[in-house]
Amino acid sequence: MAKVFERTNGLTDKPFHYCPGCTHGVIHRLVAEVLEELDVLGETIGVAPVGCSVFAYDYFNCDMHEAAHGRAPAVATGIKRVHPDKVVFTYQGDGDLASIGAAEIIHAAARGEKITTIFVNNAIYGMTGGQMAPTTLEGQKATTSPYGRDVSHAGMPMRVSEMLATLDGAKFVERVSVHNAAAVRKTKKAIKKAFELQLSGEGFGIVEVLSTCPTNWGLTPVESLKWLEENMIPYYPLGNICTPEEVK
């Protein structure tokens, strides 16, 4: 009998703790598959954030390090500078990266740290109760914006990828999504390019993945995927924002 599917060795056997319909699991699998395909699992050190993916160290089958809230890029910088031969990545949500960790990600990119960041943007704080995040859309309801985000008070949602792409140290910046099968395939391709960039010693790379949060959005998993497509993508357009010519 022909084998048509095989579980990636990049993930452990521990069940995910994520809510039903959460797409963190999909993104975990894509990262794990890429690391396995590049044959670098034994040489990889990941940095877990504070947020819904705080337990990522239990799921990735490589060395992992926990960081304080928002400090994953700073921790990854230290790891990479001490172990320049290792593949180092951070896995962060939008609350962790774009709010309390904004300074860390900006300066890591500005310095051109040779690390890879997987940035999961679901436009809300997931773990702590559904509060408004820097990426929450205009008019989007959250526990701290029950009438919808008021931009006259909270400002416009932050486009992190476009901001980082202005920095000379950022060598690969791409925004992708996991709202359908075709988008998932493109996301894996972008993640692989980002890690290949690190392996070639080019500089800082980040892949922003638009994701869902059915629990805090108050939608079913299927409705959440549709909401992402119809509301998030128009404001956060998909595509490559910064890529060296040699890896295009």
From TrEMBL:
GO terms for molecular function: oxidoreductase activity, acting on the aldehyde or oxo group of donors, iron-sulfur protein as acceptor; thiamine pyrophosphate binding. GO terms for biological process: cellular respiration. The keyword Oxidoreductase applies. Residues 58-208 form the Thiamine pyrophosphate enzyme TPP-binding domain. Pfam families: TPP_enzyme_C (PF02775). Keywords: Oxidoreductase. This is 2-oxoglutarate oxidoreductase. It comes from Anaeromonas frigoriresistens.
